[in-house]
Every structure is written in C-alpha cells, then in structure tokens.
Amino acid sequence: MRAALAASLVVVAALAGCTTAAPEPVTLTVLASSELADLAPVLADLRRDTGVELKLDRRGTVRASDDLAAGVDHDLAWLATNRYLRLKAADLPLSTSTMISPLVLGVKAGKADVVRDASWADVASRAAAGELRFGMADPRVSGSGMAALIGVATAAAGTGAALRAEDVTCDKLQGFLTGRVFGAAGAAEVGDEYVQRQDEVDAVVAYESTVLSLNASGQLREPLEVVYPRDGIVLSDYPLMLLKPDKRAAYDRVVDWLRSPSAQRAIMERTFRRPSDPQVPRVEALREPIGTALYFPGTQAVVDTLLAAYDRAGQSGRVVFVLDHSTSMAGARIAGLREAFATLSRAGGFDRFRLGETVVLVRFAGTVKEERSVVVRGAADLEALAVALTSADLADDGTAIWSALDHAYRVVGDGTVVLMTDGENNAGMSAEEFLAAWPHPPARTYAIRFGEADPVELDRVARATGGRVVDAGSGSLLEAVKEIRGCR
C-alpha cells in the first residue's frame, strides 16, 4: 500500500511539474495609427497567448506623432513610422519594427496602362493633364498622405537625396494634386472613401495593404492593380515603441509574440502587410519587389513646406508671362521662347501648365501690344497659347520693360509674374518709378534675362518683389522657364 501511495505521489508531482502557470494579465494603453483597427483578430490571439491586452487609441500617424511629441499618457505607441516623431524629439523611445507596407498606387485595371511602370513624375504628369483622378489620405493627419507628397516632391527635386526645405520652396506638387478628387481623414478611412466614390476616381494612393484589402473585400466593381513608382517607395515599418520603461516586461512579451513566425504569418494573411522577418515566406500577393526606398526628410521645415503646398492645391492658380517682342528678339531668341512655351504646353514632367490654371500673356515692345488670357481646360487651350506666340509680330518702337510689368501687376491678382527680356529699358516707366508705384508688390516677379538685358536693374526689381533673376545665357531658355515655373 505504501508503494502504491508513493507511486501516486510521483504521478501527482509529475503532473504538477507539467502544468504551466497562465501568464499574468496586463492591459497596456497604446497610441496607434488609425489603420491598425484591422489587427483586432491578431490582438485577440495575442491576449490569449500572452495575457497582454492592447487597448488602441487610434489616430492618424502625423497627428499622433504631434501628440506624442507634446506628451501623452499611453504605455506604448504603435505608429506606421517613427520618422515624424524623430523630426520633433531628440531621443526616440525603444522601438521594434513589426510589419512593413509600402505606399503605392492602386489603379483600376482599365486605367493601369496609363501608369504601369510609372515614376512619380509620370503620375504627376497624368494627373496634371486630367488623365488620372485619385483619392488619398489627408497629409495633415495621415502618414500615407504625407508619404505621397514626399514621393512626388523627392522625384521633382531630382537630387537623389533627402528633401531639403529649399528643394520644395518652389513646389512642384500642384500638377500632382490637380488629380486629387478626395482627401480622406486617414489611412483607415481612405479605403472606405474609395469604396463609396469608386465611380468618381481612377485610382487610390494608399498603403499596399489597403489596396490589397480592397481587392479582397468584394466591394469593388473593378479590381485595382498595384503600381510601385519606379523612382522610389516610401516604406512604413510599424514600430512598437515603449513609452513607459516600467512596462518593459509586458512590452517584451508583446514584441516576442508579434515577431514570432506564427504571428507574422497571421498579420500577413489577415492584413496584407509584409512580415518584418525576411525568413517568413510571403503570400503570392506580397512577392512583388518594391524597389528602392526613398530618403525621408531630415527636418520639420520640409514637412511644413509640403503641407503648405497641399493647402494651396485647391487654388486654380494664375501666372502672367510678360514677353519682350521688340525687334532685338528676332531669330534664335524668339524661337527659343516659343519652343519653351510649346514644351510647357505638352504633357510631361512637373512644370507643365495645369488644368484650371489661368495663363496670361502680355506682349510688349515700346508699349504693351497685347494681353491674352487662357484658362487651361484641355489640349485646345494649350494649342491656343502656342498659336498666339507663333503668330505674334515683333515691333521696333523701343523696350518698355517696367511699363509692361506695371500692366502685369494690374491683372496678376494673387498669381505670379514671369518677365522675359533681352534688352535695356528705354521707354515708359523707369525702374525707380515702377518701385515707387508698387511699394508693396502684390506678386513675385521672376525675370529671365538673356542678351543685353541689364542684370543689375533686373535683379534689383525682382528681389524687391520677392522673386529673382535667372540668366538664360548660362543654360537653355527652357530650363530657365521650368526652374521658375514651379514657384508660387
């Protein structure tokens, strides 16, 4: 009997040794990007396996980063990226990447040929020409919306490096934003908005995960093709950040679980985000190479400049070109001017004329010879600009630069003036009289100088208006026009 009792005690002890105590339950508050609502089933599994419940307080990534920098009382933060926080905070909290999703274009299959294998420049060009209408998230709130602006502006700068504020001072985002039909409140909302307004647009600018989720939703009348801009991608790696060091033990439990192969597969299969662990095999929809990652801006000033450009996008725009048609322009100079306008009127690049923009041509010699205004609604309006310049005669009655500029200021409104001249002022107002007449210039003047035009006088007046001089003699006239064309 004693032997039997001893044996039973051994069995009980063995069973006790095999019993694993349930993990201590913990609840952590998390400041999270809005799109992480789709992780609810994954977080339920996390709670079951680790005892840690994550209570998400969801906001747009940009806004959440601002709130985080100002100070919040959350235990953790889980944002699409910590780059916006890095611009505001000297020290980043402990962070661990959990999953990856690039910013892409989701384009209707019937429209995909227009932008397949496209660069950001191609997308901007198509949008400016009215050939691509899209929805995106509001960059003032959402990381995906800001990532779109960064992609376009970085491509426009053409430096191959991180954007600087001076790269976007003369922003070239307006053509791209011409195609924007709606700006949703955040990355989570952009998909819902697209479903509601899919007949109004050709595409959506969003995370890859959003586009693939839309295709799988059964709510689209036409599937979306994923387009990865070939000149660079903005990536989000969803770092989980520890805000309160005393929660480190629970944080480690969460990170270990999220980074496990089974959790990485669950995230991928349920949300279409790529695993942060390269060893986890990807589902077929996520095997497409995403190309080169773009540099992220290094200063808050760049982000502020991009947001200012976005806020101006609703303005249709107005630019007045003041063109010297004196006889000294005969030959190569007038031919170069006409070619520059012909190129600006054709599709291509960031600097073309845009739909809805008002373009005013003021031709002058000894006096103002003609004023012609065109609102760009389509190809016919652009052709009218080219015809107006091609058919214009030159005059030999002098060069009244400042009188012509005075005329332009009376019609420019809140637009921009571009002055092109090759001569010295010898008729009408003097530079001093012009500056006295306009002590607070209503618009910037950008002067393109070539030939014998007085560089000192042009520079003095241009700078007084907040503009500058570009010397066409040091490069092509077209490049000079394009350099200042983006300045608003």
TrEMBL record:
One Gene Ontology biological process: thiamine transport
Organism listed in the record: Saccharothrix texasensis
Protein name: Ca-activated chloride channel family protein
Domain VWFA: 316-482
GO molecular function, one term: thiamine pyrophosphate binding
Keyword Signal: yes
Key words, A-Z: Signal
Signal sequence segment: 1-21
The keyword Signal is annotated on this UniProt entry: yes
Transmembrane segments: none
Family annotation (Gene3D superfamilies): Periplasmic binding protein-like II (3.40.190.10), von Willebrand factor, type A domain (3.40.50.410)
One GO cellular component, as annotated: outer membrane-bounded periplasmic space
